[in-house]
Amino acid sequence: MATFEIPDYNVPKLEEKIAKLNKKAAQLGVDPITIHVSGFKNVLLRDLYPDAIDQNNHSLYENSSECIRFAIVQVDGQAPKINGWQFLATIQPQFEEDGTTFVGNVLRTVPGMEGIPEKYRQATNWCDHCETNRVRNETYLVMSDAGETKQVGRTCLRDFLGHANPEKIAAWTTTLSDLCDLIGSYGHRGPMGGPYIQRYPLADFLTQCAAVIRVSGWVSRKFARISGKDATAAVAMEQLVATANARLEQYIPIEEDEKLGKQTADWMEALELRSDNNDYLKNLSMVGQTGCVEYRTTGIAASGISAMKREFGESLIPERVKPAAANYLGSLKQRMILDVTVNAVRSYSNDWGSGVVVKMVTGTGDVCTAFGLNGVVEGQSIKIKGTVKAHNEYKGQKETVLNRVVLL
């Protein structure tokens, strides 16, 4: 399995291309190529293009918060196997301009088949089946179930493998070998995949919104249309995309704005854990999970600051403890006493009742959850006694579910 990072707007085009290749795989009777998006990351343009300059020879993105959202894509293409022999790579000889001076070989390796012996970098067009060395455009490297490798020419594949049509299977091997180049064409410098979408880190945008609200108050887009005032989201975005010397001094963020912006971004991301979200909070949650904003989501994102203040009051919400890599606590049905810090308190309501769910973290970073533990607040350090009910995993993080929990 190979892992790649490509802009998220190119993923649908890549999936479409892989689907077409898999139709060919079905015709050949070989395993299809699988593609899985395992996560996302936001990368600033100034990190992608550190040397980019404008017509005045100034750095193009030095003061920009613009970013591209990358999808982490895992691609797996199983090398075909015929009668106990598996294709590893296509060997393509390279020559100097005169066309006769041999330079070396390009090894088009099937994804997941790394570690091809270096000797094949300089191997001649020798075929282990017919035992001849002659002009060939490419040869194929195959490996037996016992680990023995052979270099075989295209015209010898039928006799060597005992297959009616090995040439097409070999061609599929070359297709798999070219996967890295194919996926690379969908990278941020590639021409395919549709329009470029301008995005900015959510915390940076909310920090700028906090500065605008501190100076001019909150103005929604709806109120802006009625009153003729500038919407908070519009002003914040203008500040964010402006060059350093074009930004209005009164809207330059201070430490208080940075803290509020970061906490609002964290709160919006954590909304995913709640079961009582209305449509508005669900929309906020979706923006929070992406970790970035684009022009069409700036309005809903900017309103997050006011929404968080309505829930917690004008004071800033407590800093949340960032859990380390968590392990499970105890064994099932074990009664335990724990010193923990409250990480989140969320109310819920469903067909089976209502109450609160409390997420806590130990001093070693282990996460536990309890239902019905009342009278605690986020950031509070407490001692509890509870019974291990279950060992769950949420978004790749281990957490222990406790019941019959009491404060000590």
Percentage beta strand: 25-35%
Order of helices and strands: EHEHEEEEEEEEHHHEHHHHHEHHEEEEE
Structural class estimated from helices and strands:
alpha+beta
Q: What is the CA–CA distance across the termini?
A: 49 Å
Radius of gyration: 29 Å
Helix content: 25-40%
Major sheet details: 5 strands, antiparallel
Walkthrough of the structure:
- This protein is 29% helix and 30% strand.
- Mean pLDDT is 78; it is low at 189-195 and 318-324.
- The longest helix has 18 residues, at 11-28.
- The chain has helices spanning 11-28, 45-48, 157-161, 166-177, 179-184, 202-216, 221-227, 232-241, 255-270, 279-290, 298-302, 304-312; strands at 2-7, 34-44, 67-76, 81-82, 85-95, 102-109, 126-127, 132-133, 139-144, 149-153, 200-201, 292-293, 335-350, 353-362, 367-371, 381-394, 397-407.
- Among the domains are: 85-155, no CATH class; 200-312, no CATH class; 335-407, OB fold (Dihydrolipoamide Acetyltransferase, E2P) (Beta Barrel).
- A hairpin with a 2-residue loop joins strand 16 (381-394) and strand 17 (397-407).
- It is extended.
- The two termini are 49 Å apart.
